[in-house]
Amino acid sequence: MTLMVGPISADDHLAFVQDQRIVSFLQSPEWARVKTEWRSESLGWRDGRQLVGAGLVLHRPVPRLERYTLAYLPEGPVIDWTGDLDAWLGPLATYLRANGAFAIRLGPPVRTHVWTATQVKEGVADPAVERLTDLPSQTDPLGALVTSRLRDGGWLPQSPEDGFGAGHPQFNFELPLAGKTEDDLLRGMNQLWRRNLKKAAKAGVEVAVGNDLKAFHELYVETAARDQFTPRPLKYFETMFAALGPGRIRLYLAHHDGSLVSAAIMVRVGAQAWYSYGASSTAKREVRGSNACQWAMIQDALAAGCDVYSLRGITPTLDAADSHVGLIQFKVGTGGQAVRYVGEWDLPLRPLVYRAFDLYMRQREHRRKR
Question: Which PROSITE patterns does the annotation name (predicted)?
């Protein structure tokens, strides 16, 4: 198979994505309209005249060297990762280097390890276990093969020890939905989750799909102050909803006695749904609005025929003293599974420029942490 890589229209890109059962929303052409600070293009792989792969490329310029860019394909590209990677990634590198990229960064949507909710729960309870990777896991041979081929091809791993970096998380928590009913999913949850859902129902928490992004953002800013992270501006969410549209993205609002107690955003593409952003009030935590919001999104994902509901990123730490463990325990309560992906990898195309960019990013991160 001889593959050629070149630009494709947004319409052709969208049509290709819509034919895939599982593909990240970060690889849909609409996502380019959200990342307005990046230049973007849709690329296609062709075998003869047939479109057999696609990728959304976000171009980040180098400070003071704007003619060079980092070509970023988040959670992509959408290609056959079981095939000959040189045949797929070689033409990509050739095209991007010829068009000014100093490096490629991509995140193969390929798993390497899976841990059950029971394993994670037992790991948190065991003082001898500090990380997910300390536990036995179900391994995916494709993940090992892709990792080996990338390394042999000169690609450099970028995922840090805590699983979070400048890109997207390597460790995620996912709830399999295929072949299950609502009763099956409820039985799979732990007792605390089922009890909290009953508390929310008894307290009269009502969850509805809405469009009040301003109310969501006010609650999100409150959450950011409490949990000590930097919130995105309201404009970002307005752009996100305008770009993805009502068929792909929904806002869930949980009210108790007229007060907004929790809110969350779900994105769906094909047979996968993602919990994307969430917010909760400091007051009325006892009515369990966050659990009610999650359950509403899970129910809707199941009704839409999704195979997977992703609760997105987790850190691999299981140390009970670590502040991140509370988030893991909340997600584990759904009864899903922790999943490690291959992670993000860089291929330097212009080594001198890449080293300068890497030094700049390291210095910026050092200043941020001071």
Answer: FEMABX
Query: What mean pLDDT do residues 128-147 have?
Result: 96
Residue whose C-alpha is closest to residue 205's, from 282, 275, 259: 259
Strand partners, 105: 72, 346
All domains of the chain in start order, with CATH = 4-107+344-369 (3.40.630.30), 113-136+170-341 (3.40.630.30)
77: cis peptide before it, omega within 30°?
A: yes
Per-residue pLDDT band at 247 (split at 50, 70, 90): confident
d(CA 327, CA 330): 5
Q: 5-14, 259-268, 315-324: lowest mean pLDDT where?
A: 315-324
How many contiguous H segments (helices) and E segments (strands) does the chain have? 11, 16
As a whole-number percent, the residues of the chain with pLDDT over 70 amount to 96
Q: Which two tokens stand for residue 252?
A: 């869930």
324: confidence class by pLDDT, cuts 50, 70, 90: confident
Quote the crossing angle between the two packed helices 191-203 and 289-303, to the nearest 10°: 100
Q: Tell me the residue ranges of DSSP E strands in the chain.
A: 4-7, 39-47, 50-62, 65-73, 101-106, 111-116, 138-139, 156-157, 171-176, 206-210, 249-256, 259-269, 272-280, 308-313, 337-341, 345-348
Pull the structure tokens for residue 50: 């047939």
Q: What is the pLDDT of residue 283?
A: 94
Tokens of 151: 């390394």
